[in-house]
Amino acid sequence: MKILLIDDSKTMRNIQKAVLSQLGYTEIEEACDGQDALSKVGAFAPNLLLVDWNMPKMDGLTFVRNFRQNDKTTPIIMVTTESEKSRVIEAIKAGVNNYVVKPFTPDILSQRINETLGRLAA
Amino acid sequence: MDPRYITPFIASIQNVFSTMLQLPVSIDEPRLKQDNRATYDVSAIIGMSGDVTGNVVLSFPADTAQRLVALFIGEDISTDNPDFADAIGELVNMVAGNAKADFSGKAVSISCPSVIIGQHHAVSSGSDTPCVIIPCQTDCGELAIEIAIRETNAASTGDSTAQAA
Fold this sequence. Notes:
The structure holds two protein chains of two kinds. By secondary structure, chain A is an alpha/beta fold. Chain A has a single domain (2-121), classed as Response regulator (Rossmann fold, 3-Layer(aba) Sandwich), CATH 3.40.50. Chain A has five helices and five strands; from the N terminus they run E-H-E-H-E-H-E-H-E-H. Chain A has a five-stranded parallel beta sheet, sandwiched between helices. In chain A, helix 4 (85-94) links the parallel strand 4 and strand 5. Chain B has one domain (3-153): CheC-like (Chemotaxis protein chec). In chain B, strands 1, 2, 3, 4, 5, 6, 7 and 8 form an eight-stranded antiparallel beta sheet that branches. In chain B, a hairpin with a 2-residue loop joins strand 7 (132-138) and strand 8 (141-151). In chain B, helix 1 packs across helix 3 (82-100). The longest helix of chain B is centred in the middle third of the chain and has 19 residues, at 82-100. The two termini of chain B are 26 Å apart. The relative contact order of chain B is 0.28. Chain A binds chain B through residues 8-12, 14, 54-56, 80-84, 86, 101-105, and chain B through 15-16, 19-20, 72-73, 83, 86-87, 89-90, 93-94, 96-98, 100-101, 107, 110-112.
């Protein structure tokens, strides 16, 4: 299972990486914004993406719209401080499969990851 | 300033610190800030735009900020380590992002955070935007939330800017 973590904050990437490691996922690539992520998805070919919303250069929503032009199926979880209902709807319309609001506990993030991958396996 | 734009920040900082740092935050009486000098030596700044515009600052004494960062990332680092600004910036990002969700019926975007570290810097929010300080107490030390925001059509001029001095 290859996972691409996209967040401009190294702190948040490290926290998410720790949760993923606890779940047994160790094949993790990191990107610091949407543009960086777009340059890495081809070679890395992730099976799951965790994407922040507010980032410099290219925000998470723009990244998701770009990514979905070529990949309709790889699951994407938006991990963001944007918690308004309108934002969640906007993200889902862009192609996000699940949503985690910051701040989150490790349990919540684990639950959303398992839920998302579970749906894929079903 | 309309209390509808103050109380969300109180709930938000308590939620963020409790969830990410397992740290309770007690709140003292908010007051109007009289000048643009930073309250403490570390300012984590985020801009708001849309139906509500302005700046929100988390202001920390350096030693408080270092203790909070140690809790957040799990190691002690100095203020000149790039990871320090990253962690402090993420705290203001979460506090502002969660607070704006409670601005009923308002569409608001937040900027990427900026962090200023150093004594005697200033954070200016424009002369037409009053700044409210919410003093906070934690077991890691004191800090303050500084809120200088207004409804976009409640005043006519001036974008907010942050500047180091």
